[in-house]
Amino acid sequence: MVSGSERAPKAATELMQAMTRLRARLRTESAPGEMPWTWSQLMTLARIVREGPTTTSALAQAEHVRRQSMAETVAVLRANGLITSDQDPNDGRKTLISATREGQVLSATIPAAREAWLVAAIGDLLDPEEQQTLLKAAAIMNRIADRT
């Protein structure tokens, strides 16, 4: 009998391969002319839209990247008019980042094409039991991503 700890390396390898393939496929669901931004920039913008004003440090921690990397992402979003920065009214040493109206619109439209493809693929390929399994897997993946 194989123990859970013996299955973990195989599960990790299979999960990484599947995530890489799915991520690549999702990227292709938007035409290059429609998407001058990277996946990480769009995910950061979506987090800003969803969670409201935040700091670069908080974004870096939430996205599991270095603060310097997040600062580069934020700079691109700012240069394209997708976010704005204001001084934190409660702590003048901090800068809060918010999405502009353009950023909110972009966040709603670009991922919509990918989501539509994914919804169709799940609906076409998976039966209801498999869809429920996928929901459980997504919850598990989020738990793994949040591990400290």
Can you offer a commentary on this structure?
By secondary structure, the protein is mainly α. The chain has helices spanning 4-28, 39-51, 56-63, 67-79, 101-125, 128-145, and strands at 83-87, 95-99. Strands 1-2 form a two-stranded antiparallel sheet. β1 and β2 form a beta hairpin. The mean pLDDT is 87.
Topology:
Layout: H1 4-28, H2 39-51, H3 56-63, H4 67-79, E1 83-87, E2 95-99, H5 101-125, H6 128-145
Antiparallel strand pairs: 1-2
Helix pairs in contact: 2-4, 2-5, 3-4
Give me the secondary-structure category: mainly alpha
What's the number of extended β-strand segments? 2
Order of helices and strands: HHHHEEHH
**Helix residue percentage:** 55-70%
> Unreliable runs, pLDDT <50, ≥5 residues?
none
Radius of gyration: 18 Å
Straight-line N-to-C gap: 30 Å
Let me know the average pLDDT.
Answer: 87
- Treating each run of at least 4 consecutive H or I residues as one helix, how many helices? 6
Shape: globular
Can you list the strand order of the major beta sheet? 1-2
| Sheet with most strands | 2 strands, antiparallel
- What portion of residues belong to β-strands? 5-15%
